[in-house]
Amino acid sequence: MAQKVKDRHELFNNWNNYEVSTVQVGQDGTKFLKVWGFGKRVDLAVTQAKKNAVHACVFRGVPGNANAMATPALCSDPTTLDANLDYFYDFFETGSTYLSFVNLTTDGVFRLQK
User: Fold this and answer.
1) What is the pLDDT of residues 26-58, one digit of tens each?
2) Is residue 68 within 8 Å of residue 25, measured between CB atoms?
3) How far is the first Cα of the chain from the last one, in angstroms, to the nearest whole number?
4) Considering the entire predicted model, what is its pTM?
5) Which of 59, 60, 66, 86 is least surrounded by CB atoms within 10 angstroms?
6) How many independent structural domains does the chain possess?
7) Is 28 helix (H, G, I), strand (E, B) or coil?
8) Is 57 inside any structural domain?
9) What is the span of the domain harbouring residue 72?
10) Residue 77: phi, psi to the nearest 5?
11) Are 98 and 92 in contact (CB under 8 A)?
12) Is residue 112 situated within a structural domain?
């Protein structure tokens, strides 16, 4: 199903709606991140959290903490996403290329009981 450019812009305008924090750094310098994702179902929220983790590394940077220095974004030019919208739309499509940058997930899901 083809999408209009406006629809693609809307998708990427939601990238500011997540949180990411550094948990620890592995011996090889790998950073373990805690990332939040939202979705109508648990599996959709987990998928979105993985996308958010990669997006943070590429476009926002990762905050530091007492055990790890902050990591700047790989892409510091704020116009890159818009200039390459088709590429990044395909890159972040569910089950696509972004997953090759997610090494390990616990898919930790905690439900609040009422």
Assistant:
1) 888 888 888 888 777 888 888 888 999 999 999
2) yes
3) 39
4) 0.78
5) 66
6) 1
7) coil
8) yes
9) 5-101
10) -85, 115
11) yes
12) no
